Amino acid sequence: ALRIVILIKRNPGISTAVLAEELGISQRSVQRYIKTLCMSGEWIDYDTSLRGWRLEHEKSFLLDFEDIDE
């Protein structure tokens, strides 16, 4: 699932088919992972103008740790 977030962050507008090919999984599996990520708090949207997935506000709580105090 984390690899999906990384690919979407690096390639806003990436399609389900390309994600599936890059990860070696089915398109249905990609959709299930995205649904699970959204349910866990990731803001992943399908952008109809780009015809692909993007992170809302180009941020991910799984990848953006700048705001966390150590």
Question: What keyword list fits this structure?
Answer:
3 helices, 43% helix, two-stranded antiparallel sheet, disordered C terminus, alpha+beta
Descriptive account of the structure:
The protein is of the alpha+beta class. The protein has helices spanning 2-10, 16-23, 27-39; strands spanning 44-47, 52-55. Strands 1-2 form a two-stranded antiparallel sheet. A hairpin with a 4-residue loop joins strand 1 (44-47) and strand 2. It starts with a helix and ends in a 15-residue tail after the last strand. Residues 66-70 have low confidence and may be disordered.
Q: Quick recap of the structure?
A:
43% of the residues lie in helices and 11% in strands. It has 70 residues and is α+β, with helices and mostly antiparallel strands.
Low-pLDDT runs:
66-70
> Largest sheet at a glance?
2 strands, antiparallel
Our estimate of the beta-strand percent is 5-15%
What class would the helix/strand composition place it in?
alpha+beta
Order of helices and strands: HHHEE
Cα distance spanning the termini:
25 Å
> What's the multimeric state?
single chain
Name the strands of the widest sheet in spatial order.
Answer: 1-2
Shape: globular
How many individual β-strands?
2
Mean pLDDT: 87
Radius of gyration from CA coordinates: 12 Å
- Count the helices. How many? 3
Helical content stands at 40-55%
Task: Note the topology.
Layout: H1 2-10, H2 16-23, H3 27-39, E1 44-47, E2 52-55
Antiparallel strand pairs: 1-2
Helix pairs in contact: 2-3
